[in-house]
UniProtKB/TrEMBL annotation:
Transmembrane segments: 54-76, 96-119, 173-192, 212-230, 335-355, 376-398, 410-428, 472-501
Catalytic activity: bromide(in) + chloride(out) = bromide(out) + chloride(in); sulfate(out) + 2 chloride(in) = sulfate(in) + 2 chloride(out); oxalate(in) + sulfate(out) = oxalate(out) + sulfate(in); iodide(in) + chloride(out) = iodide(out) + chloride(in)
Compartments where found: Apical cell membrane
Keywords recorded for this protein, A-Z: Cell membrane, Glycoprotein, Membrane, Phosphoprotein, Transmembrane, Transmembrane helix, Transport
GO molecular function term, any single one: secondary active sulfate transmembrane transporter activity
SUPFAM superfamilies reported in the protein's UniProt record: SpoIIaa-like (SSF52091)
UniProt topology in membrane: Multi-pass membrane protein
InterPro entries referenced in this protein's UniProt entry, alphabetically: S04_transporter_CS (IPR018045), SLC26A/SulP_dom (IPR011547), SLC26A/SulP_fam (IPR001902), STAS_dom (IPR002645), STAS_dom_sf (IPR036513)
Name by which UniProt lists this protein: Sulfate transporter
One of the record's GO cellular component terms: apical plasma membrane
Keyword check for Lyase: no
Amino acid sequence: FVMERKTRVKINRKKVMLAKLRKSCSCTPKKLKNFVMDFLPVLRWLPKYQCKEYIWGDVMSGLVIGIILVPQAIAYSLLAGLKPIYSLYTSFFANIIYFLMGTSRHVSVGIFSLISLMVGQVVDRELLLAGFDLNDDAPPTLGDGSLQNDSQSNTTAFNLTIAGMNAECGKECYAIGIATALTFVAGVYQVLMGVFRLGFVSMYLSESVLDGFATGASLTILTAQVKYLIGIKIPRSQGHGMLVITWINVFRNISQANLCDVITSAICIVVLVTAKELGDRYKHKLKFPLPTELLVIVVATLVSHYGKLNEVYASSVSGAIPTGFIPPKVPRFNLMLRVAVDALPLAIVSFVFTVSLSEMCAKKYAYTIRANQEMFAVGFCNIIPSFFHCFATSAALAKTLVKTSTGCQTQVSGVISAMVVLLVLLFLAPLFYSLQKCVLACIIIVSLRGALRKFRDVPARYHVNKVDTLVWVVTMSASALISTEVGLLVGIVFSMLCVVVRTQRPRTALLGQIQDTSFYEDDSEYENLCSVPKVKIFRFEAPLYYANRNYFLKSLYRLTNLDPNLEAAIRKKSEKKEKQHLKKGDHTTANGLGIRETTLQLVPKQIDFQALVVDCSSISFLDTTGVNTLKEILKDYKDLNISVLLACCNPSVIDSLKRGGYFGKDFGSMQEMLFYSIHNAVQFAKDQQ
């Protein structure tokens, strides 16, 4: 039977583009209202807020997240290389802005360990280039209230002048200047990606790449906190190989470990891990998670203050945390140029984590999000706070899971969390002066449990898919051993290469017929399949394009046990010899056979088929090289009196073959070369025989 293709209506693309442009440029009150409502989704859902039904869950989850957020904000400031006050600012503004612009009801946006690490690496690098000492306990340099005028101060002043900062700006000022410039540029990238609808970029970050990146970065975070755990003073390593260099420095200086910090760290880790394990085991009985981090911080601060651990045992403490807000300041343009490249991976990672978590929550609770609006939301969560001394933010998995488990219904819970942070900012921040840094390091390390547990999943991952496991290992190793940005790039490139290699060397098979059916399957995989006499059925499980052309031909020749080019060459050679013997008048060949017998011998015994059926069901597309390859085998096999039949081609493959002239100029022989099923092609081949 013949199936007729539908005639496509030709679309005047110019008219369509002009109509869309005219529609988008028009401005009506209704359109303006919809634009504002789409840009600020809170205007749509807040008037419909069901106070009696939602308020208790939102208040409860907001308070719990706020209580968790405060110690995490202070702790993650170590990762970002900034003072704790800036982490609190970031947590406050991110929650408020996402409340206004986000489309997810459950996502918790704020500081995130991986993002803080990426910010901290850029800050450390720029501080080093500016001539500052990365040691946290280094004496203050120019602008920190010191009147030193040594070479170090001069170097710092010179570099700051080059960077466009005034000479009175010290280490802390310069660090937050770099962080805000980086955050602003990352936000601009995210907004531009939203404007140009470049959300598809996230598709190139597979689950294996993201998991490997998170695990590798977690190892880096863990390594960076070891010096705080044991209270040693080593320089903060920068550049590639930071993990290895840091561990070498740790073991070299292990004899200088502060016994007070070691004991405190051991106690805190035991308490935190035990509380987390108990919380996971009995989470179905608990209405909300235990605020273990807050309790540990409160107790540790009281012990440190009244035990005078800083004065007596030289234990490193957080120091003064000011209250209130610093006046807003525009991020410096010349610093933006220095960090423009670093902001790109930061923007992509921040967006991908936010959208993936938003989609996860939307799927679980049966509502929809707008990925493009999420990109705008996270972009403005970076742009606006950068004027208020904040650094980059993202959705955080752990806090999002806590939010959903404590009854969160809408982003009103984010406002409640922001109010808790505001309370700390205005009144409670100075109380954390005596908090030991080793306690903050313990909170960070225990929060990495989820990412580090991915190592336990490697055997199961390997059992499911070996290639994905290899992608995970490569991404994780590169992120940990080289750097996080390079690790992400290596993971993306390697995963793409794996896809290319898979299409370059796909599965190929000869098919046999399932007895008494019209179905055919791989002869090497299934028992009791019947081979079709005089017919070979070849399956190629990938698109046919320039990169796998040679593999296609080699596999075809190997499985059919016939290379038509080689066979044609042998025949020509035999015919040439026969002609030479005929000219000499000798009716016998060199083998002592007659001409008639020699003619019969021209077709070797291994050619046991007269038709080749190519199963194209797995060939999703053809490029020019693919079309030419099929034309080539059509011609080569035709010279050996073997017909080539194509089966199960999709419409795009058929169109490519038509445009490439595979069926001839008038497509007259198309019905004898193209079939809608393998069985139809086999039946046709039998009839031809």
